[in-house]
Every structure is written in C-alpha cells, then in structure tokens.
C-alpha cells in the first residue's frame, strides 16, 4: 500500500512545524486581527479603516532570492525571515502606507519542523518590528522538485495610506534635500553575484577577512534593516516628499523611480563610505564600479526626499531612532535622472 509519505510528503512533520511556530507567530499581532478557528484564512477587522477619510490599500509581494542558499549552507534560518519582511513592508512604506498584515509562503524539499519554525519565527519577529501582523502562511513540501535541504520563501503584505497623504514623485521639487538611511549591509539583493564571487575567488563563508570583525558568512547573513516605522515617523513629522527603497537595480535606478520627469537627483559620492563588505566583494570579484552601482545598495538602504527646511529635523529624528543618516545630495531641474 502506497502512502503520501512514501511519495516524500510528511503531514505529521508539517503539523509539528505549526505547533513549534505558534508561540512565535502570536507575537506578531495587531488589535485588528480576528482569529479564524479553521485556519484557512487570515482575518483583519476592516472597521479600523473608518478613521480614514479616503483610505487607499497598498499591497506588495517579494522574496529573498538566492540569499536563502547561503542560509541553507550555514544552517542559519531565522535571519532570512527578517529579510523577507523588510523587502515587502518597506516597499509599502515608500508611498507612506502603514503595513497592516502579511502572509508568507515556504516551499521546501522536506519539512524539518525546527527549520520551518525558525524561518517563520524570524518572519514573525520582523513583523513585530514593522508593526505588521502575520495573519497566515503556507508551507509546501516539494519532494523531487527541491532537494531535502533546499527551500525558498516569499511573502505578501497589505498596508493603508490616506489618499491625500500619499507620497511620491508628484511631490518632489527642485532644491529638495536627499537623505540617505544607512543599510545594515547587502540586504537581499545581488546574492547571485555574491555567490559567483565565492565560487571564483579564494573567499569562503568561513573566511575571516581583515576588513570584517566576523566570518564572511555571518556578514553576508546580516538581516535587512526594516525602515517602515522610521519612514512613517518621518512622514508624520512633515516635509517628506518621497521615499525610494534601494533594492535590485541599485541606488540610482531606484531613486529615479521616485522622481518626476522634470527633476533630477544629484548625489555626492564623497558623502559616505560604503561598508567594507562591498569593497571586499569588488576587489576579490574584479567587479567594475558601474556593476557595483547597479547591483548593490552600497550602504544606502532607503532614501528620503524632503523639503530643504525639513532636512535637519529629519536627520535628528532618524538619529533618535538609531538609524544612521546623512545628506546624500539634492534635486535640481532636469529630466527625471539620478546622477551618482
């Protein structure tokens, strides 16, 4: 007699994973979350939106990319959950939306309950940091498609913003200040190039380069900084025109998305020094500067475009929230380009 487990799917292991993650997920709640006893759907009390004059719902979905391969190789599974949340909720924050709730999806070759619980626990902890509820998720076992130790994760979140408070390119003017919010490292973009450098250089995940105060593997798994609450605090303080989340495509390409067709951004490279991990990868990989610019964040994870008279206050607010920030440049009349 053939069973589902004979085909590689262990239902009992999945149930064990749910039990292990339950307490950690409970930390990622908001008052608006409504329990669904069946567990088939996540419920959120939409009456919370009645305080808005014209609420706009914002949604975003993303993954972590090939950074999960490094997590697998190192056997560290809780940090990529932070990466997932940061990639999703910080996209919502760009338009000024408050993240409300999130769901996750994990595909794996074999359900190892402790591993799944670590991944989801990291997602839940990051949701709590972002002020976002984790209302549900799915774990899928794909034997034959993925090796037993392989996995991938994705997530989606919904947020809300008042229509007349939505941020974006239409608010940007020449003469605005461009404020950089420091990244915690590489975040979650460019890891295919990182892995290429590891394969073709003398660097290994166990290496302890002089430039770093830990192993290269530990550095590469540094979780993505989550900016959502910091961005919302800046927006509430006033003077913010737009944000740009610096992800795939690098600083110039992502900032250009937040500019109108009549305004340019001029950035000053001398205003900051990229963290050592970027120089290390560039030197060992022989990566030309233009390729670095369009692949990595180079130490800038989020950018705020603010009114010139609000720049100093923005820097003070970010400092009070322990977010390193500095004036990166300014906007000028132009054609919607970013000059780095």
TrEMBL record:
GO terms for biological process: 'de novo' IMP biosynthetic process; adenine biosynthetic process. Residues 173-335 form the PurM-like C-terminal domain. It is found in: Cytoplasm. It is an enzyme of class 6 (ligase). GO terms for cellular component: cytosol. Its EC number is 6.3.3.1. Signal peptide: none annotated. Residues 48-161 form the PurM-like N-terminal domain. It catalyses: 2-formamido-N(1)-(5-O-phospho-beta-D-ribosyl)acetamidine + ATP = 5-amino-1-(5-phospho-beta-D-ribosyl)imidazole + ADP + phosphate + H(+). Pfam families: AIRS, AIRS_C. Pathway: Purine metabolism; IMP biosynthesis via de novo pathway; 5-amino-1-(5-phospho-D-ribosyl)imidazole from N(2)-formyl-N(1)-(5-phospho-D-ribosyl)glycinamide: step 2/2. Keywords: ATP-binding, Cytoplasm, Ligase, Nucleotide-binding, Purine biosynthesis. One of its GO terms (molecular function) is phosphoribosylformylglycinamidine cyclo-ligase activity. PANTHER family: TRIFUNCTIONAL PURINE BIOSYNTHETIC PROTEIN ADENOSINE-3 (PTHR10520:SF12), TRIFUNCTIONAL PURINE BIOSYNTHETIC PROTEIN ADENOSINE-3-RELATED (PTHR10520). NCBIfam families: purM. Belongs to the AIR synthase family. This is Phosphoribosylformylglycinamidine cyclo-ligase. It comes from Thermomonospora cellulosilytica.
